Amino acid sequence: MKAVAMEPLTVEDYRLLPDAGPRYQLIEGDLYMAPAPNRYHQEISLNITLLLGKYLEKRRIGKLYTAPFDVYFDEINVH
Question: In what order do the strands lie in the sheet with 72-74?
Answer without folding.
Answer: 30-33, 24-27, 77-78, 72-74
